[in-house]
Amino acid sequence: MDIASVVGTIVAFALIGGSIIIGGGTFMAFWDAPSVMVVFGGAIAAALICFPLPNFLGVFSVSMKVFFWKVEPIKDVITQIVSLAEVARRDGLLALESKVAEVENPFIVLGVQMAVDGTRPEVMEDILRTELDAVATRHRDGKAVFDCMGRFAPAFGMIGTLMGLVIMLGDMSDPSKIGAGMAVALLTTMYGAIASNVVFLPFAEKLGFTNRQELLMMEIVIRGIMAIQSGENPRIIEQKLNTFIPPKQRASEEAA
């Protein structure tokens, strides 16, 4: 589980709730079901208009990546590839077949199997990069749905506020109710800001980050597998792949 996402979401709502309590308000004063319906329902409806149904429905499983994303540490991926390179260098490419069962990363397994099968390098790289592009497209679609809802939520908040004002101004028979009516009307603007800045856009940014990390890992695997197939020295492969690690992190690991 990604603790940062959990803590960030809880802290954001806790700060809002704490501010209401410290400000002397009550939670019921900030609850209005029609406003929730307009903002969240409107943002979801807008996303349904913008994307095909399968893409929209897929966002619910993609959203789990915000809290449960897991990408292997780059150093661990490099270590696995270097280990495979040592086996290939010592016993030949066919010896990697016995090591496939020990590898959990399906992308590494795919590359190793093609190398063992004697797939031509250009074909192998083309297949691996096609897989990388497919993953990037799926992730980009999931992020785009959250981006879309993040953009539209404040607009539906404003629409809800205008609707509330129209309803309030349409019945001015009791001036004492104007203040309460105005407060309820403004709630939709607040809901729109919260939905956009606490939920939808932060989720989209986290999905974008996980996408970049996963694509970086896949790029490392592609270069590593291609180097293994071409028979490069494991130490040279390690040095090449270590360039993907930030210099400070590289230095601290070497010191350890």
Automatic annotation (TrEMBL):
It is a multi-pass membrane protein. The chain crosses the membrane at residues 7-31, 37-60, 148-170, 182-204. GO terms for biological process: bacterial-type flagellum-dependent swarming motility; chemotaxis. Residues 102-219 form the MotA/TolQ/ExbB proton channel domain. GO terms for cellular component: plasma membrane. It holds the Pfam family MotA_ExbB. It comes from the Bacteria. Keywords: Cell membrane, Flagellar rotation, Membrane, Transmembrane, Transmembrane helix, Transport. InterPro entries: Flag_MotA_CS, MotA-like, MotA_ExbB_proton_chnl. It is found in: Cell membrane. PANTHER family: CHEMOTAXIS PROTEIN MOTA, MOTILITY PROTEIN A. Belongs to the MotA family. This is Chemotaxis protein PomA. It comes from Aeoliella mucimassa. The gene is pomA.
